[in-house]
Each structure stands twice: as structure tokens, then as C-alpha cells.
Amino acid sequence: MSPLKMEEQLSKLYMISMFRKFQDELKQLIQLNHNCIRNLDGLKTYEVIEIVKNNQGENKQLLFEVQFNEATEEVNCICRSFDFQGILCRHALCILQSEFVMELQDRYIMSRWSKDFKRIHSMTATNNIGIIVNIPMGYDHLYNLGLRCVQQIVEMASSFPNSYLFIANLFDEMKAKIVAHISAECEAPISQAEPDNAMVSKLLDPPVAQSKGCPKSKQKVSRCEVAANK
Predict the structure, then answer these.
(1) In the chain, at which residue ranges do the beta strands (DSSP E only) sit?
(2) Is the pLDDT of residue 58 over 90?
(3) How far apart are CA 40 and CA 34, in angstroms?
(4) From which residue to which does the signal peptide run (predicted)?
(5) Is residue 208 pLDDT above 60, yes or no?
(6) Distance set, CA 74 to CA 50, 69, 102, 177, 213 (Å)
């Protein structure tokens, strides 16, 4: 598998900032070594060794465990970079390269990094009397809030391995409830009643500005101007 194939694939899909981050991960593949330490019916476990320099300029080895499923071509690294940042880490890319995986699967291509992804920050609704309602959607706020919450949960769960199944089930339940709530919102009929005044701005004609001084009809006219007009 050539990394250039994946690089070409994402160059057509990702926005430039995230594509450059992916390129940074590819550039660091030369610092990695790997070897398979376990193979159970196609579920392989690799040990990836990364060579880095410490503050004293000395080389240091970091070990990362990466699992690869031959049947599904699914890869998981212990560093959890994809879960937190949405981009496959160099350790996972190293194993995909060794397994001759030519292109990234859709599961590893995040739609929020794509070029044509449009973030909806507001929704506008109009009715027959010309009322406009602006409802902020807050995509960025919800994304950051959810990311922080999940990070905290994962950090707590990592210290208690027995809680893994419990937390995984909670995630599934939360997702199911959110899907049900959104489905109900989509199927609910749109109300024609006038919205709350706090959310409504009516389109009215602007007030007429009054100029300084007396109106022209009341201004004094000199006798010379009267004679000239006649």
C-alpha cells in the first residue's frame, strides 16, 4: 500500500487544514517500526515502536499497541487519536501500510472535515405575515461540549476496566434516544401560531427621519426671492 494513494484520496475530500494534518502523520511513518505479536483468527495485534527525541536530544522509544481485523480491515490504536481528533494516527497508518490496504474506508473519513460540509448555524422560517424567526443551532458548541464530555468519561473508564461494558451500553442508549428525539422533531407538524416575541423580529418600515430646521413651507422668503419667482 502506498501512502500516496490515501494522500490522493483525502486531497479530493478534506479541507486544506485537516488534509495537512493527515500529511503530517504520513511524514512521521519513517520513524516507526512494527512487528506482529499476536494473531487470533485474523485479529492481529501489532506492537508499533516510535522513535522520538527527548528534551536532551536523545532518542527514546515509545510503544503503541495496534489491533487490525483482516476481515473488516478495521484498525484501532491504543493512543485513540481517531476517537479524539477524527484523523487516523501514524501508528494505525503504519499497520494499514503493512497490510496492503489501498484506500481508507468510509468509517475513517469524517464528513465534518470535507470540503463541501456546510455548518448550519441558523434556521429561518417565514409565515404569511412576514415574520422571521432565527433559531441558533450551535454546531460548534455542541461538538466541543460532546467532545469534552466523552474525553472525561473515557479517562475515568480507563482506570476502571470493569466499567467498559456499562459505559458502552450507556453510549448506545444515549444515541438511540437522540435519534428518536430527532425523528420526532422531523415528523412534528410546523406550527402556524405566532412565535414568542423574544424570537421574532417583524419587518416594519423604518421611521421617517426629520431634517434639522423649519420645513420649507414655513421658512421665511425674502422680497427679492418673491420678485424673482414671479
Answers:
(1) 32-40, 43-53, 59-69, 74-77, 122-126, 131-136, 200-202
(2) no
(3) 18
(4) none
(5) no
(6) 21, 5, 13, 27, 79
**Phi, psi (rounded to 5 degrees) for 47:** -110, 115
CA distance 191 to 188: 9
Handedness of CA 219, 225, 226, 230 (dihedral sign): negative
Is the predicted pLDDT of residue 106 greater than 70, yes or no? yes
Q: What type of residue is 36?
A: C
114 Cβ neighbours under 8 A, 6+ residues apart: 13, 14, 15
Lowest-confidence segment of 25-29, 56-60, 72-76, 144-148 by average pLDDT = 144-148
Nearest-angstrom CA–CA distance, 13 and 136: 28
> Which helix (H) or strand (E) covers residue 228, if one does?
helix 223-229
How far apart, in whole angstroms, are the C-alpha atoms of residue 45 and residue 38? 5
Residue bearing cell 490504536: 77
Q: Which residues pair with 136 in a beta bridge?
A: 122
CA–CA gap between residue 26 and residue 17 (Å, rounded)? 15
Which of 99, 35, 107, 104 lies closest to 71, judged by CA? 99
